[in-house]
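step: validate -> pass
step: tokenize input -> pass
step: predict -> running
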Amino acid sequence: MRAVDIIRRKRDGGALDRGQIEFVVRGVTGGTLPDYQASALLMAILLRGMTPEETAWLTDAMVRSGVTVEYPDVDGIPVDKHSTGGVGDKTSLILAPLAVAAGAIVPMMSGRGLGHTGGTLDKLESIPGFRTALSLDDLRAAIATIGCALIGQTSDVAPADRKLYALRDVTGTVESIPLICASIMSKKIAEGIGGLVLDVKTGSGAFMKTLDDSRALARSLVGIGEASGVRSEALITRMDTPLGTHVGNASEVIECVEVLKGRGPEDTRELSIALAARMLIVSQVEADADGADRRIRGVLASGAGLEVLRTVIENQGGDPRVIDDYALLPSTPDEARIIARGSGYVELESEGVGRAAVALGAGRSTLDDVVDPGVGVEIVARTGTQVRAGDVVLLVRHRGGRGLDAARELLDHAITITDGPPPAPSLIVERVMHG
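step: predict -> pass
step: emit ->
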């Protein structure tokens, strides 16, 4: 079997058989398949697609490329959440502590920034000392003692995905539904969960721009999860404008802490509550939506969720004092203003803001880029805000001008000033369940 024949078959629109897919996954895992051939196949899959059967085979092969985690000392159904990626999407740092405080068990295995979207690991690592590279023994110990761990993918879990995930980010192949499904679900199935809530983004700042594509992705993810014995459901949520008021790693951590303190932006808070409540349902901690919502709002109001986050930070080597002293987080003194070019109502487009944050150093353009946790964009005038010409719409926090010119251009194009207020549709579009 030759990789070039497999690439040609997919390039020409053919379906791969299980043996061919397993050959590729073994090659990626063992390093015998060169990056250039893996990248060529990823592009062919993006352009030609995969059948549901191919996607299921790819997912299974990626799961079996490593170990499957078990939690023998845990009484309950471990549950996780995954987002398909958005701008300002920082809900994991809020909903995981809330769900744990409400009685759930949350082993959360997250990723880094992908394309113009931010990554949970990059945010967590902006906390001084915080370790995301825990061993599986460390993961099991954290789950047994505090019920939660927020970690990166270990070398033991779906190792084929780690390589493919990184290649997708830098080869323009992120948006493929089969590749997204296999990447997400291989990690989630292998981490040993019994319940999964998916936040599938839709809109200009999402990888899936249309509702039809987002719905297809949600259904595929839920179907793979259910077929693998993981109770799964998805919320399709809007990503036409950034979530919350900050885009940038350390500043997003602050926003999360503010929400857990009972403050913070309403959209960030309400989406986090909605997702955490569904986590209680799929893990059978609560039987109905109203009870789950009440329980999550209760632990938020009591401050119990905030204390779980403090405990997680301390348990993973981070400085828990950041909860009370934001000055301990990375920052930069360099700031630029983006102003309104006219008077009217602000309409802010997500992808431009996300790409600007990457240009500043808050994300990666290549695999080897080093993320600057202190830079980013603060949204002063959110979509729907009425402004006058010259009012500040965005604050850009940069490091000595790095990427500032590119960020300014992107942000200028991301701002539209309209005569009337833009529509304000519901943040949550619909819920997708199996069947």
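step: describe -> The first strand starts at residue 79 and ends at 83.
step: cleanup -> pass
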